[in-house]
Amino acid sequence: MRTLPQAEPHLDESEAEDVFGALLDGEVDEAETARFLCDLSDRGETASEIAGAARALRARLLPVTAPDGAIDVCGTGGDGHHTLNVSTAVSLVVAACGVPVAKHGNRAASSKAGAADTLEALGLDMEAAGRTAEKSLEILGIGFLFAANHHPAMRRIQPIRQRLARRTIFNLMGPLSNPAGVGMQLIGIARPAYVPIYADAMARLGTERTLIASGDEGLDELSLAGGNEVAEVRGHEWEMRRARASDAGLPTAPIEAIRGGDARHNARALQALLMGAPGPYRDAVLFNAAAALMVAGRATDYVGGAAMAAEALDTGAAERLLADWIELAR
């Protein structure tokens, strides 16, 4: 078995791709893998390491075809706030607005309920949804790219992540390795100080347009609570900016207002949202959906995007989309 390097010195992009290739190929035992991931996280991953690791994961994925203009909306997870499933709801709302969403997700690794757990509690057969992802993308404009189906190299890594129960570089790699190869993304990251580092990693990989966002309190999505660090990446260039709920005409709210629970709890909240329930959860979804619609070129600003998202909820379009998705996956 291969011994991995210590966290110091930093790895350049090609070295990181080689190291993570060995890790993903099973050339490193579990104890050494856990040690390396923890050391790297404690020291802080660099842009070159994140990009190299993502290249290794991309080289080993099983691809899927998505419609032109498809986007992904996801968070890195691992923020420790255990909020309701915002990106999952945003995916439904954005798809109901006519933007294809190739939702890349998984079951919970370091949270109480991941996207797959909550959707399953709503009645979506996740195994069938994964098998029919291309079909549902084509017919409905939404598909769930179950990470386990598209990243076979992750099968030995996932149990290690679950045992560690902490964020690692794999939280950062996932959003950069969408199996549909989408060129547009809204990515929430749990560490605001890492937004420029992550933007640099995305720029090294290249993208049509990606927004990377983090709430000042370490939320892995646009937060209503206060300010947000946001990076816009186009091609191989990126720039930083700030965003607040008021930019979308929305009120502030503390994180506690969208605190989640297990899959059943989160599913009930999401169902209520789709049925028109007002409150901070709806506002958080509108804020993040507005950003996604801007990424997709459907809205020019947060206010316009939030209005489009609100219409998708208020007309029942997002609720009908979920019902159609559940029916298609039966």
TrEMBL record:
InterPro entries: Anthranilate_Pribosyl_Tfrase, Glycosyl_Trfase_fam3, Glycosyl_Trfase_fam3_N_dom, Glycosyl_Trfase_fam3_N_dom_sf, Nuc_phospho_transferase. GO terms for biological process: L-tryptophan biosynthetic process. 5-phospho-alpha-D-ribose 1-diphosphate binds at residues 75, 78-79, 83, 85-88, 103-111, 115. Binds 2 magnesium ions per monomer. Its cofactor is Mg(2+). Its EC number is 2.4.2.18. Mg(2+) 1 binds at residues 87, 221. It catalyses: N-(5-phospho-beta-D-ribosyl)anthranilate + diphosphate = 5-phospho-alpha-D-ribose 1-diphosphate + anthranilate. Keywords: Amino-acid biosynthesis, Aromatic amino acid biosynthesis, Glycosyltransferase, Magnesium, Metal-binding, Transferase, Tryptophan biosynthesis. It is an enzyme of class 2 (transferase). Anthranilate 1 binds at residues 75, 106. Catalyzes the transfer of the phosphoribosyl group of 5-phosphorylribose-1-pyrophosphate (PRPP) to anthranilate to yield N-(5'-phosphoribosyl)-anthranilate (PRA). In the C-terminal section; belongs to the anthranilate phosphoribosyltransferase family. HAMAP family: TrpD. This is Anthranilate phosphoribosyltransferase. It comes from Tsuneonella aeria.
